[in-house]
Amino acid sequence: MAGQTDPHISLFSPQEVEFMAEDELVEIVPNMNMEQLNFISGDFGRFIPQIPTKVPLWLAVALKRRGKCTFRPPGWMSVDNLTQILEAERESQSTFQALPFSYVEIARLLFDHARDDIPDMYMVRSLVEDIRDVRLHKLETNLGSFQGTSAVKISNVSAMEVNIVRPFVIRALEAFYKHDKPEADVDRDTRSSRQQRETNNEPRRPLRQR
Amino acid sequence: MASNSEAGGSADYETLMSTSDVELLKRAWRNEKAAPEILQYEGALVDRAKEQIELVEETIEDYVENGIDPLVVSLYQMDLDRAQFLLRSYLRIEKFMFHNLNSEEAERRLSEQEKVFATRCADDLAKHFEETVLLKLPENYQSVLKQSLISEVDDMVPQPHLDTFVVCRSKNFVSLNLYEEGESPETVEMERGDLYFIRYKIVKRAIESGQIDLI
To answer: DSSP 3-state assignment of A135?
Structure first.
């Protein structure tokens, strides 16, 4: 957490990423009556049997574990939608499909605690895992093709994925930037070929550690 | 206790009114963690959060005494735990950050207590270094702050690494100046919700004003 050895590259631990995801709102169907809850983080409720209501993920899991509600799986988690997304991810080498920012964490928590609330659970689960694999693989291959710039835009990457690639990308971009600045006068071609070589050196190390 | 209505992204005023303190604390914690230097210490926010936490702690004790449904009590306790976790992590980050920093700018941002802590810490560190190592080095190299008497600046003090890259997302459409000083000004435009890996220096102002979040 706060005790990091390398202060230059801050990392969130997976638990912290999950913590942040737990504030996402999900829909549940309570099976009991309960008054409104006035939390520090907000007001939720009231809870009426069979009336769906939106609560943060952590609260939903807590209620579910005590048998007080069932989950309504989010729209994006249907077999059809996920199959479509998987197809689209496989087709394009460079763009990522739009998925909720915390889809990994949400999916994992739902699988762990709410299996019976998800239709075709096994199918959904394997789809999500496939999507994760394809996206991670895409991220890895794309990382080798940066041109050195000051800003890189990546759309639709999720929280967990960002966290995984963050240290490497930061180091790579820093290296580009450092080498870019004093060479502003050098011929463009020489610079881009040098960047190519740079790309070849940097990716190997951190990825192989896995 | 603030209510957490759906921030539909319309008027900024509404978003401000409906963001709970916990949300703000979470944002401050996230930004602080991802940034390469200490950000402005959110004293008022921390105090408000502390107050609310204490209030809830008392309420929970009351609930337990009055025999309210233990389920409800445990849920309030969970919410409390989450808020406490955020607060503690945030304070811990502040303390850790200035183990490495001792620049003037950092001092401006720290709270009073932290300044006291920092000076004490720095003094202890200096003494420790002196006794163990520096006295054994040749005379020119004996300062904690300078690499040698020849250096003009305090170059033994690690400067915050402002040129590093961070991941960020903007809340609204934002247009930023990419290059500084004499180079051709280029701008990068960030739509709402886009993710960027970008140099910290460029987005620093925007983060302080709350337009951009670090991730």
So the answer is: helix
- How close does chain B come to A120, measured CA to CA in Å? 31
What number is the ipTM of this complex? 0.75
- Give me Rg for the CA atoms of chain B: 22
- CATH code of residue B45: 1.20.58.1030
Q: Which chain A residues have a beta carbon less than 8 Å from that of B196?
A: 151-154
Q: What would the pLDDT profile of B119-144 be if each residue is shown by its tens digit?
A: 666 677 666 766 666 566 655 555 55
Q: Is residue B87 part of a domain?
A: yes
Q: How would DSSP label each residue in A73-101? A: --GGGSHHHHHHHHHHHHH-SS------T
Are the beta carbons of A150 and B198 separated by less than 8 Å? Answer: yes
Spatial distance between the Cα atoms of B97 and B41, rounded to a whole number of angstroms:
12
CA separation, residue A10 to residues A5, B187, B189 (Å) = 9, 27, 25
> Alpha helices of B67-141 — where are they, by DSSP H?
70-100, 104-109, 112-132
